[in-house]
Amino acid sequence: MISVIGGGSLATALVNILAQHSTVHWWMRDPNQAEHIRIHRQNPKYLPDLYIPENIFPTHEWDKILENTEVMFLVVPSAFLKSVLPDTLPQNILYVSGIKGLLYPENQTVSQYLTHKYHVPESQIVVFSGPSHAEEIAQHQLSYLHIAGTSTIHLQKIQKLLTQYYLKTTLTEDILGIEYLGAIKNIMALGMGIINGLGYGDNFKATFFTFIIKEIQQILQFLCPDTERNILDNVYLGDVLVTCYSQFSRNRMFGNMIGKGYSVKSAQLEMNMVAEGYYALQGIYSLLQSKKTEFSIVEMLYKIIYEFAPPRKTVQKWIETHL
Question: Which domains does the chain have, with CATH numbers?
């Protein structure tokens, strides 16, 4: 049996794909949401036009999830993962994470957290990522994913479950690189949003983006060195691009509101959605403090988001220093 943890857009798109292969038990925090889906076969909060097949069983009860699950997909915001997981998890389940963020204050990726907290063997963990907004996947728009893990058998199993005519998949071993990139690119999308909200044009956005790519490469080499990693691959550069520029990017939207003068709190309230970059910024900033080399964009964004520095003055100072 397959289970999916999370009630958001990605989870909604994902259960429809997985239901083609198996019965799917779908856990979500809100029991009322689960009941609505069970009766009306549509998610009232996310992708409401998408029909939920009859072999998908929404629930709020963990007992039903853990009873017969062989593969568990984790697709909740990273900030909420610890609060929704039970105290114990079986070690023989194959855990598949589509979460793009860090767990705070541990500053761990999901795979690191599952290993340290629940003693799940590394071979039982798979992650997937790439430029893959749930809205477009639900519309069967052509999309590409990278699936990472240490077990070839498990990688091929997940590849078979996820591959569609509109969803292409590639296998890789760079688990940590993909996980860290998923957190970092959300942070950088905050920056692109702030730049846009402040009114800068396409010329400067393109210049700023080149600095983003350079800094991401430096951060990845510091956090998880890999001489074979190519930052130009789709799972890295492609994911950064779509998150920084897409209309569906919550992180860009959040940054845009900050650039336009919203406070952090007011932006969060008005969005009524989770901008992963807000939480990831705190964790990545903390991890980078042991590095003497300056990561200037992360530093700048931390000052704006967490130290409430004026966005325009702070960005202008960055420009004067680096351009």
Answer: 2-175 (3.40.50.720), 177-322 (1.10.1040.10)
